[in-house]
């Protein structure tokens, strides 16, 4: 009997420790954990689902029609489940329709595709989200407009325009030849996403973390200069925005800079990221920016691979110390603990 009681006490103690561990890691997951659709669905705690099926086996055949059916001022999470297929439509989630979870069947199975170039980045966008509290999982966003003529109205071809605060994309993909992801404003999280482009293809003034993302550089032979992955636009030192890339990889078919300045306080960080030879040795550029480089924050931390050349980088760029990098490696950079359903712990 004594042995049985001890065993029960031991079991209860183990259960208590496990419960404490789970309560402390319920949102911030270890790096080896895969964030999938069931986990996200569980974390947002809803069973309200609208099914979209291009073949007619759902409530709607169009994604936009499903979004239009969501009531204005929606205050509880609602899932729009988009089954596999290529949905050829422009999709817009307006600012008065928050708490939408756009759940696809995988970035290789669910596509939102349009083809449009414009002198206006926003007008060209295949997908636009302006409502706060938005999640997407397993969706590919593509602008398949042919590469236009540089510096003309046929130049902008945005795949996604993200102007929402508290927006998260998990296992999504973004395709275009130019200006692919307009990361306009707000706090954003991208986990295990694929982003493809050639010139300024991640740009805007958002405060965003890109965790374990693949960045693929395609060739743009219209230009005599190398393209750039990022073009962050930060106007002053009080602005908290910045683009932070952690534990991803950069590769491709053409030479490219990690980023260029789009504003006097442009802030971009690549940390613990694999860089292939597609990154030119100078790393960073102030091309077309006529202001001082004194306040630019174009930085790296423990990048590696053949494209990592700290001794050849632009003189105004920075190789961060552990202490300097710490604020950018924390999910607190985007206040993620306050609004993300799940995230991956950077240091695990």
Automatic annotation (TrEMBL):
It holds the Pfam family Pectinesterase. This is Pectinesterase. Pathway: Glycan metabolism; pectin degradation; 2-dehydro-3-deoxy-D-gluconate from pectin: step 1/5. Residues 51-336 form the Pectinesterase catalytic domain. GO terms for biological process: cell wall modification; pectin catabolic process. It is an enzyme of class 3 (hydrolase). It comes from Ficus carica (Common fig). Acts in the modification of cell walls via demethylesterification of cell wall pectin. Belongs to the pectinesterase family. It catalyses: [(1->4)-alpha-D-galacturonosyl methyl ester](n) + n H2O = [(1->4)-alpha-D-galacturonosyl](n) + n methanol + n H(+). Its EC number is 3.1.1.11. InterPro entries: Pectin_lyas_fold, Pectin_lyase_fold/virulence, Pectinesterase_Asp_AS, Pectinesterase_cat.
């Amino acid at each position: 009997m004594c042995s049985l009681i001890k065993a029960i006490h031991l079991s209860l103690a183990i259960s208590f420790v496990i419960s404490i561990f789970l309560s402390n890691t319920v949102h911030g997951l270890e790096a080896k954990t895969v964030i999938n659709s069931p986990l996200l669905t569980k974390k947002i705690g809803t069973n309200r689902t609208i099914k979209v099926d291009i073949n007619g086996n759902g409530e709607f055949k169009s994604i936009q029609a499903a979004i239009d059916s969501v009531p204005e001022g929606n205050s509880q999470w609602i899932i729009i489940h988009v089954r596999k297929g290529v949905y050829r439509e422009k999709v817009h989630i307006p600012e008065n329709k928050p708490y939408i979870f756009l759940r696809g069947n995988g970035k290789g199975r669910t596509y939102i595709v349009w083809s449009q170039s414009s002198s206006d980045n926003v007008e060209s966008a295949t997908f636009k989200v302006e409502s706060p509290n938005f999640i997407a999982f397993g969706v590919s966003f593509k602008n398949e407009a042919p590469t236009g003529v540089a510096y003309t109205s046929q130049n902008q071809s945005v795949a996604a325009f993200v102007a929402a605060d508290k927006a998260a994309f998990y296992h999504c993909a973004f395709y275009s030849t130019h200006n692919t992801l307009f990361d306009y404003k707000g706090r954003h999280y991208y986990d295990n996403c694929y982003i493809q482009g050639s010139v300024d293809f991640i740009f805007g003034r958002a405060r965003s973390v890109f965790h374990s993302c693949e960045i693929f550089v395609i060739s743009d032979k219209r230009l005599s200069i190398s393209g750039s992955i990022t073009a962050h636009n930060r106007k002053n030192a009080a602005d908290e925005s910045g683009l932070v890339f952690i534990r991803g990889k950069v590769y491709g078919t053409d030479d490219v800079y990690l980023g260029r300045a789009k504003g006097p306080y442009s802030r971009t960080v690549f940390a613990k990221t694999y860089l292939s030879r597609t990154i030119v040795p100078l790393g960073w550029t102030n091309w077309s920016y006529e202001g001082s480089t004194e306040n630019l924050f174009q930085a790296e931390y423990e990048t590696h691979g053949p494209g990592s050349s700290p001794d050849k980088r632009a003189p105004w760029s920075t190789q961060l110390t552990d202490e300097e990098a710490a604020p950018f490696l924390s999910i607190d950079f985007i206040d993620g603990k306050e609004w993300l359903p799940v995230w991956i712990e950077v240091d695990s």
